[in-house]
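ARCHIVE CARD
Drawer: 12
Card no.: 0347
Subject: one protein chain, sequence and derived structure
Cross-reference: see card 0346
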Amino acid sequence: MNAIEQFKSQYSVTIAQDIIWGDMDAFNHINNTVYFRYFENARIEYFERTNINALMQKTKIGPILGETECKYLAPLTYPDKITVGAKVTEIKEKRFSQHYEVFSHKMNKVVAKGRGEIVYFNYADAQTCRIPDEILAAIDRLENQVAGER
């Protein structure tokens, strides 16, 4: 198994995307803020696959990002292709944690690691709430299937 296959096997959701030249900064590498967009892209794909977004549109109960962080391991530069992985690592009554990594195809290694704390929120009442059972079941199904780029 090569490095990218090994990487993808560790995540329930992976997405591939090209690095955009315009995301580089004056220091000639991808700006630090852009990595949070990479995490967001994988997080939203995760939400789509678990019907989190669909249920939120119907019920006004859904996720809100409570906390996020990133550890930069190597600078990305244009041109490159990346694969971003996302998985849920911990679930509590009203929140869950996601782990993210960014894999550079050019460098053939992980270049950033991140984490996000997703809080469940009732947007109609403006307060936190329990994660719906159907979302917990969908997360469980996704986390227990074979990972791969979709």
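Annotation on reverse: The first strand starts at residue 13 and ends at 18. The radius of gyration is 16 Å.
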